[in-house]
Amino acid sequence: MNVLIIEDHAPLAANLVDYLSGVGHIVDAAPDGPTGLRLASGKAFDAIVLDLGLPGLDGIELCRRLRADANHVPILVMTARGELDDRILGLDCGADDYLVKPVKLRELDARLRALVRRSQGRAASSVLRVGDLALDERTMQVTRQGHPLSLTRMDYRILQLLMRESPAIVTRQRLQDEIWGDAPPESDSLRSHVHRVRRVVDQPFARPLIRTVIGVGYRMVDDDAGQD
Asked: Of 8, 12, 133, 174, most Cβ neighbours within 10 A?
């Protein structure tokens, strides 16, 4: 399996990489929070080992950002923070398991394998489908007719919401609230983003899936009715 180690203590990180590589895993490592977030967001890993006391971006916030971006990779927190409140906070922010240092490497490997087995069991339900369009919420991969599609993070979130709600209408207000929260853009950014999503998802294919409901919002539907 592909594992990402996000750990700022260099000797420990090297020990983890050596051990996990030695038992057959492919391992990447990040020495700080921002690097870890970039790697976790840009590549599909089977599991992440996450320290909490990271420079640049705390592990709790890193975990929250991954979950907010619908990245469902299994996360095992491995930290010196062993108090009950710390363990509860780590699990509540989206982690799947929690180990307190020092850790036995064989146990770490066993827990990672268990997390990946459970994750693979959920994988089928993590794929959203509308017609021949598929979006895997676990890996953030989008395909249509088997061809991979490339979307920006913001456009991915818009597409994800439309597919989750399909064939229902998603209002412009709800899209803005979900994407920008309490800080909506001043310009009509939503229209521009939806246009970009259409250019990737619909234009290269014979049948459009994204419909505009004038004065209300947008919907995704796999039929020939209601085209703009």
From this structure: 133
Burial class (CB within 10 angstroms; exposed 0-12, middle 13-18, buried 19+) of 172: middle
Residue 52 contacts residue 59 (beta carbons within 8 Å): yes
Which amino acid makes up residue 131? Answer: G
Q: For position 123, what pLDDT does the model report?
A: 53
128: three-class secondary structure by DSSP: strand
Domain 131-220 is found in CATH 1.20.120.530: no
pTM summary value: 0.57
- Spans of all domains in the chain: 2-124, 131-220
Architecture of the domain spanning 2-124: 3-Layer(aba) Sandwich (3.40)
Q: Which two tokens stand for residue 38?
A: 């970039």
List per-block mean pLDDT (blocks of 10 residues) for the chain, which spans 228 residues. Answer: 95 96 94 96 92 95 90 93 88 92 93 87 71 86 92 91 90 85 75 94 94 94 59
Same fold, 2-124 and 131-220: no
